[in-house]
Amino acid sequence: MKINNIGRMSVNPYKKQAEKVDKLEIQLKKDQIQISDEALQLQKIGNVDKARQQKVEELQDKVSSGQYEVDSKKVAQKLYDFWNN
Fold it and tell me: Is there a contact between 68 and 59 (Cβ–Cβ < 8 Å)?
């Protein structure tokens, strides 16, 4: 009489290991956000200076009313200085 595979029916040792790996992969796939220290400082400082805000508003008013004029010589000089320095 010959008896084969007693107690080994449908037992796969690799199946349990594969299930453990799948569970770990599910746990590791969580979204993460990392914000640098510089970004946190910028968020705290984010308030624009009042003087700068006032200047921006003045420029917007001039542009919308048509009173804003561009000095082409100044623009050309700034471009020239930028590219040659």
Answer: yes
